[in-house]
């Protein structure tokens, strides 16, 4: 399984990790960490390339994938 971790330039998100099993882990600036499951690679790519990571998260990830808080 391959994994990628990216530090994000965002006021909302601190970093994102993505694994080849389509698991996206997001660490928020608040310290909360969530895992999202079944996230296509294109969604991860769009997030890291988006001018506004928070807006991209709200539009394309939040409430669209099964998830749970891990921290």
What does this structure look like?
The chain is 24% helix and 37% strand. The chain has 71 residues and is an alpha+beta fold. It has one domain. A hairpin with a 3-residue loop joins strand 2 (13-19) and strand 3. It is globular and about 30 Å long.
Summarize the structure.
The protein is α+β, with helices and mostly antiparallel strands. It contains two helices and five strands.
Q: Which structural class do the helices and strands define?
A: alpha+beta
Separation of the first and last Cα atoms: 23 Å
Task: Encode the helix/strand succession as letters.
Answer: EEEEHHE
Strand content: 35-45%
Helical content (DSSP H or I, runs of 4+): 10-25%
Query: How large is the radius of gyration?
Result: 11 Å
- Based on CA inertia axes, which overall geometry fits? globular
Poorly predicted spans = none
Number of strands: 5
pLDDT average, as an integer? 97
Largest sheet: 5 strands, antiparallel
What count of domains describes the coordinates? 1
Alpha plus pi helix count: 2
How would you write the strand order of the largest sheet? 1-2-3-4-5
Strand and helix layout:
Layout: E1 3-7, E2 13-19, E3 23-28, E4 33-37, H1 41-49, H2 53-60, E5 67-69
Helix pairs in contact: 1-2
Main attributes?
alpha+beta; 2 helices; about 70 residues; 5-stranded antiparallel β-sheet; single chain; about 35% strand; 5 strands
